[in-house]
Amino acid sequence: MDLLTSIKVFRQVVMRGSFTKAAEDLNISTAMASKHVTNLEQQVQARLLMRTSRRLHLTEAGQLYFDESGQALDILQQASTNASAGVKQPKGILKVTAPGWMAIPQFADWLAQYHRLYPEVLVHLSLENRRVDLVTEGYDLALRVSHDPSPSLIVKPIDTIQFYLVAAPEYLQRYGRPESIADLSQHKGVMPTYTNLSQIVINADKSAPVFDIPASILTSDTLMNYRLALAGMGIAYLPEPILLEDLAAGRLERVLSHEHYTPVTLYAAYINRQFLSAKVRTFIDFLAEKIQHERVKYPQA
């Protein structure tokens, strides 16, 4: 029998002074009420009630258990209230992991707007390119760019991200501009360690030639690769959102701009749909709405 239910039945019997009245209150039979009290006594290994034909008396152990179980039930009720409040009202710490390149002004503005709307939510944001284990590391939500999201997660597509090959004008003047994918093998690459460029799909043709750019440097950080490309260290493959100003100002130029690289989907990924908290739900909905209505149109330089 359920111990918590037995505790509640025991307390109702004591407060009503009768098994019959307690059973009526709880919509159970008198025999079942008696079984619950007996079950509780067996669990605690002590007599809690002295039963006579006319009255019920709490034993010394019963009085102590009655007093302390009431406090325990109050704590459990408060815990339940607090937990359910997080499902209904956005509040508490929201742990989010996202790609490093999302450290851009527009995303920062959106976070500030979300905070103004939901001040009781504390966003704990980690920007990193590695694949985080949401369960093991205690994250509520991951923003992930992927062609193949993990089947173990619940995912909601919220945007598509275009990536481009780019280089600084100084680099292109020094080493020339590649005219084909095969020409890339004669160039220097600012290469990421967090993705495999050979998996890039070109013109929706998976049989097309793969990227083969000899690395001049390897890094695990998208924004560092961006800075290295600006510094003329080589050709980099970078997400469109961080390139807006530099493409428009001519500080970076697209390489092989006639090629079309299949966009990658940005997903919001989380673990459990059934008990999705209000903080996770509102953050996903807010971000999706912002992307839909305020997404910047990037130049096709």
Shape: rod-shaped
CATH superfamily of the largest domain: Periplasmic binding protein-like II
Q: Quote the CATH topology of the largest domain.
A: D-Maltodextrin-Binding Protein, domain 2
Fraction in helix: 40-55%
Class by alpha and beta content: alpha/beta
Distance between the termini: 71 Å
The tally of strands reads 12
Widest sheet: strand ordering: 4-3-5-12-6
CATH architecture of the largest domain: 3-Layer(aba) Sandwich
Instruction: Please provide the ordered H/E string of secondary-structure elements.
Output: HHHEEHEHEHEEEHEEHEHEEH
Radius of gyration: 31 Å
Q: What number of structural domains do the residues give?
A: 3
Averaged pLDDT, please?
85
By oligomeric state, this entry counts as single chain
Specify the CATH class of the largest domain. Alpha Beta
Largest sheet: 5 strands, mixed
Unreliable spans are: 297-301
Protein described:
- The chain is α/β, with parallel strands linked by helices and 301 residues long.
- The chain has three domains: 3-87, Arc Repressor Mutant, subunit A, CATH 1.10.10.10; 92-160 and 264-294, D-Maltodextrin-Binding Protein, domain 2, CATH 3.40.190; 163-254, D-Maltodextrin-Binding Protein, domain 2, CATH 3.40.190.10.
- The chain is 41% helix and 21% strand.
- It has helices at residues 3-16, 19-26, 30-44, 60-88, 105-117, 134-137, 169-175, 222-230, 244-249, 278-294; strands at 49-51, 56-58, 92-98, 121-127, 141-146, 154-161, 163-167, 189-192, 215-219, 235-239, 253-254, 264-270.
- A five-stranded mixed beta sheet has the order 4-3-5-12-6, with helices on one face. The chain has a five-stranded mixed beta sheet with strand order 9-8-10-7-11. Strands 1-2 form a two-stranded antiparallel sheet.
- Strand 3, helix 5 and strand 4 (121-127) form a beta-alpha-beta unit.
- Residues 297-301 have low confidence and may be disordered.
